[in-house]
Amino acid sequence: MSLVSRMRRLRQPKIRDMVRETELTINDLICPVFVGESDTKPVEITSMPGQFRYPLNMVADEARAVADLGIPAIILFGIPSHKDDVGTSAYAPDGVVQKAARSIKDEVSDLIVITDVCLCEYITHGHCGIIEGRRILNDPTLEILAKTAVSHAQAGADIVAPSGMMDGMVGAIRGALDEEEFLDTIIMSYAAKYASSLYGPFREAADSKLSFGDRTTYQMDPANSDEALRETQLDLAEGADIIMVKPALPYLDIIYRVKSEFGVPTAAYSVSGEYAMLKAASRHGWLDEGAVVMESLLSIKRAGADMIITYFAKDVAEWLG
Ligand code: PBG
Ligand code: ZN
After folding, report:
1. Residue 321's pLDDT is what?
2. Which of 46, 183, 230, 277 has the most CB atoms in a 10 Å sphere around its CB?
3. Ligand number nearest to the C-alpha of 246
4. Nearest-CA neighbor of 235 among 180, 126, 227?
């Protein structure tokens, strides 16, 4: 039979690879690293099998292992031994992230160090800002975030990543960094961060469970997508160099819209709950882990992400290497 188009012609071996539109490479990966100030040995996170909190004296080795796999960047999360009402240890010069960043920068030269800038791990009630009664205060939080970002830059962070969804946080941080002459410190803003149920395992890892309420007064409503464009536009206007969408898999439409609309470097955060889902099904033998992880990450890239924060980063680097 004569058919003008036979789509299967290009699905044969070799030519199928040649017409592939999207590729996932090691350069797309950012590896999360948890550092526990009170830990003395690696502690596995129950709801994230295969993921660990590392003690300060082991974090440079872990960073070395990540860099040796060819992964270009890590993002650091700190779990401090001391919490208070204002997040003092978030901006302490000898805080857990500051110490970790210093030791990594001393020992591993060829790795981009990103630091998550937020208060939730450092503050007693677990919210991303300081509170008055049950209200999360925006403007007083900005000052603390700015101090935190500067202290991270002083410790050697190449990129600071504010994740608290406070209005004006990017502008406050850019201003403070510039004032201290950190003109080249990059800001990767969690621009469109949704109030998602998929952060549960992270809160176990980071010991940042809420003592009251939820995060819906600052994180975005999963029902909204126009709002993601406004959030992104504001962060870019305030000086964000890279913007982020989070979570990733249930929000591919947001990644697509943000990338199409602004055409700026876009990161996607495939969060702890996404990891837990894929890991659990794989451990049960219900899904093929390697295949489902690669397909998921490829879909995030296809949607428009330039880089992906994923807890599978080391596995993927091994599979690709
Ligand atoms: C801190 C922060 C969170 C995550 C990244 N930075 C927790 C939250 O907002 O509740 C979640 C990451 C993950 O689930 O993997 N604000
Ligand atoms: Zn937070």
Report:
1. 87
2. 277
3. 1
4. 227
Residue of 51, 119, 163, 207 with the most ligand 1 atoms within 8 Å of its CB, for mutation: 163
Q: Which ligand is nearest to the CA of 87?
A: 2
Q: Is 193 a catalytic residue?
A: yes
Domain formed by 23-320, architecture: Alpha-Beta Barrel (3.20)
Rounded CA separation 106/167 (Å)? 34
3-state secondary structure string, 244-284? EEECCHHHHHHHHHHHHHHCCCEEEEECHHHHHHHHHHHHC
Ligand 1 atom nearest to CA at 116: 6
Residue 246 annotated among the catalytic residues of the structure: yes
CA dist 181 and 193 (Å) reads: 29
Taking only Cα atoms into account, the Rg of the chain, rounded to an integer number of angstroms, comes to 20
- Tens-place pLDDT, residues 43-84: 999 999 999 999 999 999 999 999 999 999 999 999 999 999
Residue ranges of domains in the chain: 23-320
